[in-house]
Amino acid sequence: MEFSDHIKTANVEDVVLRQPLHPPSRGTVCITGHHLLFSDREEGSSRQVLLLLRNIDAIEKRISGSSGTITIKCKDLRVLHLDIPGMEQCLNIAHSIETLSCLDSVSEMYPFFYRPPDLSLHNQWGLSSPEKHYSQIKELHDKWRLSTVNSDYSLCPSYPPAVIVPKSTDDDLLKKVAKFRQGGRFPVLCYYHRKNGMVIMRSSQPLTGANRKRCREDEHLLQAMIDGSDKGYIIDTRSSQQAQQARMTGGGFESKSSYSHWKRLHRQMERGKALQESLIKLVEACGDESHNMDRWLSKLENSKWLSHVQTALSTAGLLAECVERDGHSVLVHGSEGTDSTLLISTLAQLIMDPCCRTLEGFLALLEREWVQAGHPFQQRCAHSAYSHARLQQESPVFLLMLDCVWQVWRQFPLALGFSEALLLRLANEVYASNYGTFLCNSHQERCALGVTENTHCLFQALLRPMERDYYSNPLYEPTELAIWPSVHPQSLQLWRGFFLRWTEHTRQLEEAQEEIRNMVIEWGKLALSDALSMNT
Amino acid sequence: MASPISVYNSNALDTHISSTSRESLKMELLADVSLLPGEDRIIDKDIIYICPFNGAVKGKVLITNYRLYFKSSDADVAVMLDVPLGAISRVEKMGGASSRGENSYGLDITCKDMRNLRFALKQEGHSRRDIFELLFKYAFPLSHSLPLFAYVTQEKYEESGWNIYKPMEEFRRQGLPNNKWRITFINKNYELCDTYPTVLAVPFKSKDEDLRRVAAFRSRGRIPVLSWIHRENQAVIVRCSQPLVGMSGKRNKDDERYLDMIREANDTPKLTIYDARPNVNAVANKATGGGYEGDEYQNAELIFLDIQNIHVMRESLKKLKDIVYPNVEESHWLSSLESTHWLEHVKLVLSGAIQVADKVSSGNSVVVHCSDGWDRTAQLTSLAMLMLDSHYRTLRGFQVLIEKEWISFGHKFASRIGHGDKNHADQDRSPIFVQFIDCVWQMTKQFPTAFEFNERLLLTILDHLYSCRFGTFLYNCENARDQHEVRSKAVSLWSLVNSKMDIYLNPFYTPESGRVLYPVASMRHLELWVTYYIRWNPRIQQQQQSPVEQRYKELLALRDEYLKKLEELQLSDSSPSSRLANSSTPNTSSTSSTPSQQYTHLQTPL
């Protein structure tokens, strides 16, 4: 089906647009296959609002007499109103938005059509890969190897073709282990701690099932992981009760008797639907325009979002403590190993590893731990907090990760090389994007659709000189030390920059941040020019 | 998780080394304490500090006439306490000679600055008697006919902070006197109003007899006088106390005429009177002879701002302390915080001040009062002035603001804080000034480039609000200050601050003289000031404070160098530099990469 089949009315004149932070304006609305474009009618004014239809989470239409109002609620939490003359036109526009904003076919999405003049499809796609990661860490090469056993995705459809595993395990063993782990996600290395040689591995749950099945190969792989050390930790992102229950449906956990050198730590992390509902509650509280705001703090608490932030950060802290302070290697998993597992492995690396705290390093970390590690973006981010659609696989895990990173950024204003603006940009891009980076659910799917050949890479785009400037933290001062965030509720704040983004206050703060950035850059230029003139 | 080294001394309380008293200590453990000139050892003792974060810590305590200092003797638990005695509100004995249980016998100390301290001693030979009695005596010197430490200290500074505020200079800066407002010295002997300063600005047309008659109709003679005038539109902020209307609904023609003179001065049709109190409280005040302006005041409108009284604020902060010290509420933090209502009170004070500022900047004069006009009124006028006048947002201007609206206009610091007084349950005590500083902090968070000073200044001010080391916050009014010769016998806090200004400066400060700041006073945008209220808890403290301060210091140096260069450029080339203009306005057009900008600026081929 062509896009045009969904567009009965492409243009409507004399539409009034009401949006936050701007006075209402009158102009023309135009619907295309991927965009809603509003252009101001005023002569000489070129103000336009270009909205990716993919960014629209929900619409509400209200017809009164011969005209109607469409309320557009976006995934970036903006709410717009369009007053449209003509009932039929209004209904047509609404219908087009409804259909085109949630097209299922990935190859019809905008990234496949986005062709800005300053980017070429021949540019490098992506920043990091398991191959590159492996080659960068020379210390690994003694005991770890790069395996291409998954090059045809037959072991694990959600893993990339190459993974890092202990040298003493051969591919045949991996094949057996993959059968013992949900979705074939056998334990692979995701982080090597240079200070003490300890590692973080991640996987999915073992399929022990009700009759406590064992897998010698799995036990062997884990043993190889802690070769030469007295013990390792397993951080299970479920409560021990949840892990027990998982056995009834074929899953399970590593029992003490079979994995005697491993100590299991259970930390219950909310996932899936519960997380999505928490986001919905929070956004609802933030959007409550009523004057009676007496109960704001209770509403914030009831949404439980901040307690999810707290759990994520403290579990990541626990993981980092095991590695950095206690000096042991850790295996992380929950059930599928595609959500909370990635969340805490990402945060732990940010806490421990200075390389992950630069702009480039952080983007590479996201690419490894989320994009290549097979976080199902398409399922998780199909809808956001406003959608009326029945929830399926949506869950704002990636957004929660960004929020946690923001908390770290707030507590350590010098330690991260990137700015809040980057986190905000990523929070938008993951739901609706011009770029192909967050499309699909796995490496395999992206290859099948030719994403790398036919779309542009967000991470590369964010590293162009102007963007690099904009997304850098002007106060950045690298530290080699681990940065341990405080996780008490008193130390955590609502991420106002995101959740209250479309308010006057947040805009003022954004402007002030921008001002500070320009100031520091300007001063720095002077220092640099002084240094240069000293040299000559 | 992370447990940083437990050092609970406030970094803002700076000390000078006095070598003589240091020698006299002759105690290795306490050798590194640096005493102030004039500070003397009273007693020292082996003691156990029951630390809420590390458990019982053995060490040595030193009491001087200024501070309580404790240092752990165990090298593994580095705990240090450095508490000015002025911060103590209550000292009690804990347990008795026959109490059972470990560390059950000792002292329990309640502080005014959001913490309590407990010490345990050996249960033998009345071991606590001497320290208890001496601590009690020196913590509450006024209850024992002893001088406050501010009268004992021998500190010397190059600049005298007492010169920071000169009423006439400040009036001149505002453009006063002019043909509508005159300066009067009618109160030079504190006869018109004993809690007002000597120099007052009043309507040009008002005669001294008018002022006397108005004084008779205003609670404690606190007549309406000018606090601030808008240079362009000549609208003014006038402050006073409630009119003495009483149950019988008394009227006073002079008072009515006087308020109309204020309105006439800038020729607006209506004068707005902001009564800070809730409506019902204003009505209730009639029973005790007070009240509010009724319909007889023509050309005036009265608006109640719903701000609660000193007792409500005291209880609110007490509740807040309960949930942050010694243990922080974990499981229901936000709803517990909500139930203290502290942030809600902050919101009401801020939104009241916003209304005042908005009215004035749109050209209408306002009168602000509460009951006596020294608590809520001071909060509202000073915050509104901070929003309207960028001068008060500089380091020195802020000092002027506090000296003027709080100190000279008789906010009863002595009664509200209870300096040197043992009567800890005094109903006159209330954290009104703390609440004001909290509101200022909220504003600095919302406008990170608008204030020349940083958070450290606010913390320093609050530390010395209690410490009794400086004369600045002592006594209830100017009259009392004169009688006790504070300015000649004690040092001003601003002497300390201005002797090392750089640590109090915000590197990102961008002067914008005409800008009126309207903070958002919505619960959603207010935050609890964690770095003040929960600063004693080492686990909650903002991390890595010192590298941040270090970095800010470097940035300040870089900025100064930049400004110097710029000045040189301007001297050599008289045309105004465009680089400065660039640096002080957000250069938003240079990037098109924020999503919002992308949508509004980008022209994509469709």
Care to describe what's here?
The complex is a heterodimer of chains A (536) and B (606). Chain A has 536 residues and is of the alpha+beta class. Chain A has helices at 87-100, 130-136, 171-179, 216-225, 240-246, 272-287, 296-303, 305-325, 340-352, 359-372, 377-380, 397-411, 420-429, 443-448, 451-454, 458-462, 465-471, 496-499, 504-535; strands at 11-18, 25-31, 35-40, 48-52, 56-64, 67-74, 79-85, 144-147, 163-166, 188-193, 198-202, 232-236, 262-266, 329-333. Chain A folds into two domains: 3-103, PH-domain like (Roll), CATH 2.30.29.30; 130-487 and 505-520, no CATH class. In chain A, 38% of the residues lie in helices and 16% in strands. Chain B has three domains: 22-139, PH-domain like; 161-543, Protein-Tyrosine Phosphatase, Chain A; 546-572 and 591-606, no CATH class. Chain B is 36% helix and 14% strand. Chain B has helices at residues 19-25, 129-139, 167-173, 208-217, 253-265, 279-284, 310-324, 333-340, 342-361, 376-388, 395-408, 413-417, 432-446, 455-467, 478-483, 486-489, 493-499, 530-533, 545-572, 578-584, 595-601; strands at residues 41-51, 55-64, 67-72, 80-84, 88-94, 106-111, 116-120, 181-184, 200-203, 225-229, 236-240, 271-275, 300-304, 366-369. In chain B, the strands form three sheets. Chain B has a seven-stranded antiparallel β-sheet, covered by helices on one side. The N and C termini of chain B lie far apart (53 Å). Mean pLDDT of chain B is 89; it is low at 1-26 and 575-606.
